[in-house]
Write a structure and sequence with these properties.
Helices cover about 35% and strands about 0% of the residues. By secondary structure, it is an all-alpha fold. The protein has one domain. It is globular and about 35 Å long. It binds zinc ion (2 copies). The site of one zinc ion has 8 residues, from helix 4.
Length: about 90
Protein backbone atom coordinates (compact mmCIF):
# COMPACT_ATOMS: atom_id res chain seq x y z
CA UNK A 1 0.00 0.00 0.00
CA UNK A 2 1.34 3.38 -0.95
CA UNK A 3 0.84 6.25 1.36
CA UNK A 4 0.33 9.43 -0.60
CA UNK A 5 0.73 12.71 1.17
CA UNK A 6 -2.08 14.94 -0.02
CA UNK A 7 -0.61 17.86 1.79
CA UNK A 8 2.01 18.46 -0.90
CA UNK A 9 4.10 20.70 1.31
CA UNK A 10 4.79 23.97 -0.44
CA UNK A 11 5.78 22.89 -3.93
CA UNK A 12 3.17 25.03 -5.68
CA UNK A 13 5.04 28.28 -5.31
CA UNK A 14 6.79 28.78 -8.63
CA UNK A 15 9.33 31.29 -7.40
CA UNK A 16 10.41 29.12 -4.55
CA UNK A 17 10.68 26.19 -6.87
CA UNK A 18 13.07 28.09 -9.10
CA UNK A 19 15.20 29.02 -6.13
CA UNK A 20 15.27 25.50 -4.82
CA UNK A 21 16.78 24.35 -8.10
CA UNK A 22 20.08 25.72 -6.94
CA UNK A 23 22.23 24.42 -4.18
CA UNK A 24 22.14 27.12 -1.48
CA UNK A 25 25.83 26.58 -0.81
CA UNK A 26 27.45 26.68 -4.24
CA UNK A 27 24.59 27.96 -6.40
CA UNK A 28 24.88 25.19 -8.93
CA UNK A 29 22.10 22.85 -9.90
CA UNK A 30 21.35 20.47 -7.08
CA UNK A 31 19.80 17.89 -9.41
CA UNK A 32 16.84 17.62 -7.10
CA UNK A 33 14.01 15.62 -8.59
CA UNK A 34 11.67 18.51 -7.94
CA UNK A 35 13.59 20.65 -10.40
CA UNK A 36 13.05 18.11 -13.13
CA UNK A 37 9.36 17.77 -12.38
CA UNK A 38 9.74 14.39 -10.86
CA UNK A 39 8.40 13.15 -7.59
CA UNK A 40 10.47 14.07 -4.56
CA UNK A 41 10.48 10.39 -3.79
CA UNK A 42 12.68 9.88 -6.84
CA UNK A 43 15.24 12.42 -5.76
CA UNK A 44 18.74 11.35 -4.91
CA UNK A 45 18.38 13.32 -1.68
CA UNK A 46 15.72 10.89 -0.50
CA UNK A 47 18.19 8.05 -0.41
CA UNK A 48 21.26 10.04 0.54
CA UNK A 49 22.50 9.99 4.07
CA UNK A 50 22.35 13.44 5.57
CA UNK A 51 24.21 14.70 8.60
CA UNK A 52 22.15 15.60 11.68
CA UNK A 53 19.83 18.54 11.35
CA UNK A 54 21.96 20.63 13.67
CA UNK A 55 24.79 20.35 11.18
CA UNK A 56 22.59 21.42 8.31
CA UNK A 57 21.33 24.37 10.30
CA UNK A 58 24.90 25.33 11.09
CA UNK A 59 25.42 25.50 7.36
CA UNK A 60 22.40 27.75 7.07
CA UNK A 61 20.34 25.04 5.48
CA UNK A 62 16.76 25.03 6.58
CA UNK A 63 15.61 22.27 4.31
CA UNK A 64 13.82 24.60 1.90
CA UNK A 65 16.19 23.67 -0.88
CA UNK A 66 18.28 20.67 -1.60
CA UNK A 67 22.00 21.02 -1.59
CA UNK A 68 23.97 19.29 -4.28
CA UNK A 69 25.69 15.99 -3.83
CA UNK A 70 29.11 17.64 -3.82
CA UNK A 71 28.24 19.88 -0.93
CA UNK A 72 26.59 17.06 0.95
CA UNK A 73 29.73 14.99 0.67
CA UNK A 74 31.84 17.94 1.73
CA UNK A 75 29.73 18.61 4.81
CA UNK A 76 29.75 14.96 5.75
CA UNK A 77 33.51 14.89 5.47
CA UNK A 78 33.86 18.00 7.57
CA UNK A 79 31.67 16.45 10.21
CA UNK A 80 33.64 13.23 10.11
CA UNK A 81 36.89 15.12 10.48
CA UNK A 82 35.48 17.23 13.26
CA UNK A 83 36.06 20.45 11.37
CA UNK A 84 32.54 21.66 11.77
CA UNK A 85 31.58 22.94 15.15
CA UNK A 86 28.13 21.91 16.13
CA UNK A 87 26.78 24.36 18.61
ZN1 LIG B 1 26.46 22.64 -3.67
ZN1 LIG C 1 15.95 16.66 -3.55
Amino acid sequence: MNQIDVNNSGVENDEQQTQSMLCPLCQTSNQCALTTKQEIENCWCKTAEFPPKSVLLANKLDGSACICQDCLERIKQEVALGLKRID
